[in-house]
Design a protein that fits this description.
Strand order of the largest sheet: 1-2-3-4
Number of strands: 12
Number of domains: 2
Oligomer: single chain
Largest sheet: 4 strands, antiparallel
Distance between the termini: 46 Å
């Protein structure tokens, strides 16, 4: 694949992108970029290098200050490059023998990436990584600082579930900025399929918090889907599915900003035909989530 000469980055130690860049000091930009070349032009040069080696390249973000591309190789290998005014500020390859569990990497295109996603005045990029130690693709937030260096932004997903991750991003609030969707999967005995909900996290003053009431439209849509499935499950006398969907309805109400009593009432409202022990486990889960440090944004914070 194209040489990774000239790339350096400053990243915090995180689960998703730890070790993806060499900890070397920035050099004079002319050592990275040909004289007078912009990040966009340098990215075009990189793209051509990849294409010359049989890769299919996507130009995902292309601005005066930052460019991001990813590439799929002829043997299904993947690569991602972020170019700023210091040159290639971030390079990730998968597979990579230094990180044997990393399987694939890709970038999320503009407008999801390449804008100020969390209100701190800096550009953020979204990068999705598949790692064999996780069951799903996870999305990392990478910030480009005023010097053209990049680092991963920590997102505390514990309000949803320990070790959860953002599995996708979309514009939930309708404000042309991407929100992260953090997915919790909860074992509910005796059900064989876990209860699962995706909780929107919004960027606020450089950090990410559950959106709460500001995402009411999103939660309304999620509830509607489950209520429709509940009717199908009830017609089929499927107690397992009734139980799981009832628990998910309670969780959705909780993460929307409802209190414990409101969330449990939402769980119970359409639980007829479910397993009593599974429904009881769902109530206990909601109570446990309420006792954990929530970090949930208030309605005033996210409006």
């Amino acid at each position: 694949m194209p040489s990774r000469r000239r790339w350096a980055a400053r990243l915090t130690a995180t689960v998703l992108l730890a070790g993806c860049a060499e900890p070397v000091q920035p050099r004079d930009p002319v050592d990275y970029l040909r004289v007078g070349v912009t990040p966009s032009e340098e990215a075009a040069h990189l793209a051509q290098s990849f294409e010359d080696e049989g890769y299919r390249v996507r130009r995902l973000v292309d601005t005066d200050d930052v460019a991001m591309l990813d590439a799929l190789g002829p043997d299904r290998q993947t690569a991602l490059r972020v170019v700023t005014r210091v040159g290639v500020a971030l390079g990730i390859d998968a597979p990579d023998r230094r990180f044997p569990t990393r399987e694939r990497v890709r970038g999320l295109p503009a407008p999801l990436s390449g804008g100020d996603l969390d209100g701190d005045g800096a550009v953020e990029l979204l990068i999705a990584v598949v790692d064999s130690t996780r069951m799903t693709e996870c999305v990392a937030v990478v910030r480009v600082d005023e010097h053209g260096q990049v680092y991963e932004v920590s997102v505390d997903t514990r309000p949803v579930q320990e070790d959860a991750c953002a599995e996708r991003a979309e514009d939930v609030a309708g404000d042309a900025r991407a929100e992260l969707l953090v997915v919790g999967r909860y074992a509910i005995p005796p059900l064989s399929v876990p209860a699962s909900v995706a909780v929107p996290f919004t960027g606020l003053d450089g950090r990410y918090l559950p959106m709460g009431p500001a995402s009411a439209r999103y939660f309304t849509s999620e509830r509607a889907v489950r209520l429709e499935r509940l009717e199908d499950a009830r017609r089929a006398n499927d107690a397992d599915t009734i139980s799981r969907l009832s628990v998910e309805l309670g969780l959705l109400r909780f993460f929307e900003g409802g209190g414990v009593d409101s969330a449990i009432a939402a769980l119970d409202a359409d639980s007829e035909g479910g397993h009593l022990d599974a429904l009881s486990a769902g109530r206990d889960l909601i109570r446990a989530l309420a006792e954990a440090p929530s970090g949930r944004a208030s309605e005033d914070e996210t409006e």
